[in-house]
Amino acid sequence: MTGALVDTGFLVALFRRNDRLRSAARDYLREHTHGLATVSPVIVETCLFLDARGKSDLLEWVIRGAIAVVDVPVDAYPEIKASINKYADRDIDFADAALIWFAAMSGCRSILTVDTRDFSILRIKGNKRFEVVPWAGERKGR
Predict the structure, then answer these.
(1) What pLDDT score does 139 carry?
(2) Beta-strand relationship, 36-39 and 68-70
């Protein structure tokens, strides 16, 4: 896969109307036309932070094909569990562990996130680093 993986914070910034990073997220997408992909747990997690209109807009964006969303099969759960255990001291969530799994499966290491601290530490199979894509004057966590 070419393009970038997308984490929750980027999507929240994009679809929460009063988010201080919204214009930066929108500007990034206007300037970059590469493919975007995420895992379904990121969509679920993003919806926790959005109002009804934001959820609807996010789902419409997905339906239009602006981002590919990959379901996480149960047979990926052992790898996801291993990542959660490996990073127990960081208390990563299922969505982040699923992104680690998907990065290994897809070969894509570029990620749009606000969680630069964790994604600079998390490793993909083979001890590969994520490549955090600068888009909003990075900040530490959300």
Answers:
(1) 44
(2) parallel
Residue 137 falls inside a structural domain: no
Residue 53: CATH number of its domain: 3.40.50.1010
State the chain's maximal CA–CA distance in angstroms: 40
Domain containing 18: what range? 4-132
Q: How many domains does the chain have?
A: 1
Q: Is residue 142 part of a domain?
A: no
What secondary structure, in 3-state letters, does 31-56 show? Answer: HCCCCEEEEHHHHHHHHCCCCHHHHH
The single residue listed with the structure tokens 């094909």 is 65
| Domain membership flag for residue 139 | no
Q: pLDDT tens digits, residue range 24-45?
A: 999 999 999 899 999 999 999 9
Dump pLDDT digits (tens) for 91-136. Answer: 999 999 999 999 999 999 999 999 999 999 999 999 999 999 999 8
